[in-house]
Amino acid sequence: MCLNNETITLQRLAYKINASVADINFCFHQPGSAPASDRLVRWNNNNFSCAIINVDGSCIGSPTRAGFGGLIRNRGGLYLTGFSGLIQFSSDILLAELTAIFHGISIAKDMGITEMAVYSNSLLSINLITDNFSKFHVHAVLIQDIKDLLATVNFSLNHTLREGN
Q1: What would the pLDDT profile of 68-86 be if each residue is shown by its tens digit?
Q2: What is the CATH number of the domain that holds 147?
Q3: What does the DSSP 8-state code read for residue 125?
Q4: pLDDT digits (tens, 9 = 90+) for 97-107
Q5: What is the DSSP string of 17-78?
Q6: Is 123 a member of any domain?
Q7: What confidence tens digit (pLDDT) does each residue in 3-29 have?
Q8: Cα→Cα distances 127→77, 87, 109, 152, 165, Å
Q9: What are phi and psi of 158, to 5 degrees?
Q10: CB neighbours (10 Å) of residue 25?
Q11: Per the domain annotation, does 6 fall within a domain?
Q12: Residue 112 resides in a domain
């Protein structure tokens, strides 16, 4: 239109845009599939009236290293303390996630916190801790250390989505 010096009304332009959007939607629509709904995810205390800790682990490939960290908040969401650490020469994300849980629980216990909800986005880590696991698991000692710590305090272990963590 610009090159041919043509003009078009705003209503006609809006109609063409809507028609193009409808064509694009039709091209990507899967028959029989329900439209995706947005799910809003944010941090919340899920009605726990105690301290909350969010922990996470991460890995990067080159140079190979893993990290972990977390933060502890009071029941109103105010920051109490945080921690982080590095596991050099490892690309084991499960080790990083389990180490984050272990350090978070240890720090909270040292702070004198007696009741706390622990949140991790690693469902595998939570399942290894809460379910029975093989004593031959590569991280069996760390998992047992976490279980021993949890047995001495009133902490609950919970899964959360990554975006809410």
Answers
A1: 999 999 888 889 999 999 9
A2: 3.30.420.10
A3: H
A4: 999 999 999 99
A5: HHHHHHHHHHHHPPTTPPPP---------TT--SEEEEEEEEEETTTTEEEEEEEEE-TTS-
A6: yes
A7: 667 788 888 888 888 888 888 887 777
A8: 26, 22, 22, 19, 17
A9: -130, 150
A10: 10
A11: no
A12: yes
